[in-house]
Specification:
The protein is an alpha/beta fold. It has 7 helices and 8 strands; from the N terminus they run E-E-E-H-E-H-E-H-E-H-H-E-H-E-H. The chain has one domain: Rossmann fold (3-Layer(aba) Sandwich), CATH 3.40.50. The two termini are 24 Å apart. The mean pLDDT is 94.
């Protein structure tokens, strides 16, 4: 299948739109897919291509401080990290609304992401019931716990962090899926995580899945580190294809 890859700027948001060439001006299911920490939209383009080949309009944004929006990382622990996620949360609805206004998207909305993008994905699920299908790839549904771990490591290393760190991140618990699992309802959610991941702990997902047993949660674990291989991308693609087709065709 021939694809069209468009570079777009929605206000200050640089993004790639990946879509089947013959259907680029038609109404299609929309997937917003987020890259990881210190990465960029181009580094999830292979995943975007695989999804678009299944007939989706795939949007790959650059997070704040990344890619075409790159800024120096502050020396204050995790400030740039949380800023990037927070901005993703602010911008998600703006992106979806843009493509709906163009008549290129309807209510078949999905979201996914890698690492920091997976954390973004789980956070979005707490406040966006319009998301129908989601995939968190080596991310965490427990960002509040993840932030506490960062603060502990900063203390142990003798690094400066603000005395009001928790207050500055007071929005995080409100977007923590593990603290608000009821917001997931019966929506399909895929977790993929490597058992040897030392960047985003594998145990965060294990604990969430154990605490929230549901036939709508799919958990794939493999003996991998913090790395997404092409075979994993194929599994993610098949998942979106299956679940989004259920929305369209009801099977």
């Amino acid at each position: 299948m021939k694809l069209t890859i468009r570079q777009r700027s929605l206000g200050s948001i640089p993004l790639l739109e990946v879509v089947p060439r013959s259907e680029r001006n038609q109404l299609l299911p929309l997937i917003v897919y987020y890259h990881g920490w210190q990465s960029a939209k181009e580094l999830v383009l292979t995943q975007g291509r695989k999804l678009a080949e299944k007939g989706f309009r795939v949007i790959l944004p650059d997070a704040a401080n990344h890619g075409d929006r790159r800024q120096d990382i502050t020396r204050i622990p995790s400030l740039t990290f949380w800023q990037s996620i927070h901005t993703n949360l602010f911008e998600f609805g703006f992106i979806v609304n843009h493509f709906k206004k163009l008549g290129l998207a309807d209510d078949r909305i999905a979201v996914g992401g890698v690492s920091m993008g997976g954390i973004t994905t789980c956070a979005l699920l707490t406040h966006h019931p319009e998301i129908k299908v989601a995939a968190c790839v080596m991310g965490s549904p427990k960002p509040h716990h993840y932030g506490e771990r960062i603060m502990q490591h900063a203390e142990e290393a003798g690094r400066f962090y603000p005395h009001d760190y928790k207050e500055l991140l007071s929005w995080v618990p409100k977007y923590d899926l593990s603290l608000h699992p009821d917001t997931l309802k019966d929506r399909p959610l895929l977790f993929w995580h490597g058992t040897e991941d030392r960047v985003v702990p594998f145990t965060d997902v294990v604990e969430f899945v154990k605490a929230n047993p549901s036939p709508n949660i799919t958990f794939i674990q493999e003996e991998e580190e913090h790395l997404v291989r092409a075979t994993t991308m194929d599994k993610i693609t098949d998942y979106f294809d299956r679940e989004m087709n259920r929305l369209t065709y009801g099977n």
